[in-house]
Design brief:
About 50% of the residues lie in helices and about 15% in strands. It is of the alpha+beta class. The protein is globular, with a radius of gyration of 21 Å.
Length: about 400
């Protein structure tokens, strides 16, 4: 049924783009264990004397039990992002004459289906242009991380510009996203306690008691949510900004381009949550030893540059001193993210959790951990001991 509905959406897209009697080919593709809530498809729409459309689609595959644990509005988020928010961002860039090479790049949106159990979104197929996703089992390198953070800074700067230029409209959009906070609060409560046990099971004996004491006294879902609201400059954040939700390619001139995708987890929170999430889900201890300071400095430099192109003064909007203070205060979120996310991010394909079949969110915490998990998790723990956060 979902495939039939997707074909109907594609037929409508073809008609809107001037196709008469097109040939439509839809093929499933593997998520490689990086996507648990959707089936992915490539679509080719062709017709003589017409430029072929290369499209990409996601169809939601979440079972009844998990759906009952989620607000219905979650299934319409990505449409709202592409149709309303990202279009507004584009208008803001145009109004400020931001040079094309300095603008945020996202996939082109073609259409969607919002019918229950058939929810889908259709975008341009970036893979046809040579874009690929990063290997989730490898740590990011400096070049990739710098470009990814540059795109993130543009995304956050546009949120800041939106809130400054259209405060009432921005507030109304934020209200549409309010349900996300409650949903993620519930998910974190369900995941976190079990993930602590998973974390401690791979922690070295000499650090286990100190780590447990720190987690018991300093980190809870409630403290993390309070941290998310403590920033001087709250933004519409991506919410799941990790390499599996980015696509990249090397251009003919040798430069690297990174494009964010998958906006269904957008939240109203501190911009540092996206930054720390990217760092602690996408890098290993060696990378952070070499580049953590450089990358966090780079983010603020790129954010400041993007704000200036949008006619805003970064020293007023988000001063470096404030940013550095908040980064230090929010560092515990990096540990929290690693505890909650790394078991899933590093899981082997055959053990990847599923939102199909039966059962609720417990399906997401019952999967095995992969062989990379102990190294990556202990690397994060080592960071927090090395920084003196855990003593």
């Amino acid at each position: 049924m979902a495939m039939e509905s997707l074909r109907k959406v594609v037929e409508d897209i073809a008609k809107e783009n001037g196709f008469g009697k097109p040939e439509i080919v839809i093929n499933p593709i593997s998520t490689g264990g990086a996507n648990y809530s959707s089936e992915l498809f490539t679509i080719v729409v062709s017709e003589d004397a017409k430029e072929t459309l290369h499209l990409f689609s996601k169809i939601i595959i979440i079972n009844e039990t998990i759906r009952a644990q989620m607000p219905p509005a979650i299934f319409d988020v990505e449409r709202l992002i592409y149709v309303d928010l990202l279009k507004k961002y584009e208008d803001i860039e145009i109004s400020h004459n931001v040079p094309p090479e300095k603008r945020l790049v996202v996939p082109k949106y073609y259409g969607c289906n919002t019918k229950k159990f058939e929810e889908s979104v259709v975008l341009e197929n970036l893979a046809e242009k040579g874009f690929i996703t990063y290997d989730r089992f490898k740590s990011v390198d400096w070049e990739y991380a710098a470009k990814a953070v540059k795109s993130l800074a543009k995304f956050h700067a546009l949120s800041m510009a939106y809130s400054e230029e259209y405060p009432q409209e921005f507030e109304e959009f934020v209200k549409k996203m309010d349900f996300q906070k409650e949903m993620f609060l519930g998910m974190f409560h369900q995941f976190y306690e079990q993930r602590i046990e998973t974390t401690l099971s791979v922690t070295t004996e000499e650090r286990k008691s100190k780590l447990k004491k720190y987690l018991d006294t300093h980190i809870s879902v409630e403290t993390i949510m309070k941290l998310s609201e403590s920033s001087q400059r709250i933004v519409l954040s991506h919410g799941d900004y990790r390499p599996s939700n980015l696509m990249h390619k090397y251009n003919e001139d040798g430069t690297l381009q990174v494009i964010p995708v998958d906006f269904q987890t957008i939240q109203y929170t501190s911009p540092l949550f996206d930054l720390l999430y990217f760092i602690f889900t996408g890098s290993d201890e060696k990378f952070r030893r070499q580049h953590f300071q450089d990358l966090t400095d780079h983010y603020h430099q790129e954010l400041s540059s993007a704000l200036r192109y949008l006619g805003l003064n970064p020293d007023i909007i988000y001063p470096k001193r404030t940013y550095e203070y908040e980064l230090k205060e929010l560092l515990p979120y990096g540990l929290f993210v690693a505890i909650v996310g790394l078991p899933i991010i590093t899981v082997e394909l055959e053990d990847a959790p599923s939102m199909q079949g039966e059962g609720g969110f417990e399906n997401m915490t019952s999967s095995k951990t992969g062989p990379l998990y102990p190294e990556r998790m202990n690397g994060v723990i080592n960071d927090f001991f090395r920084w003196g956060i855990i003593e």
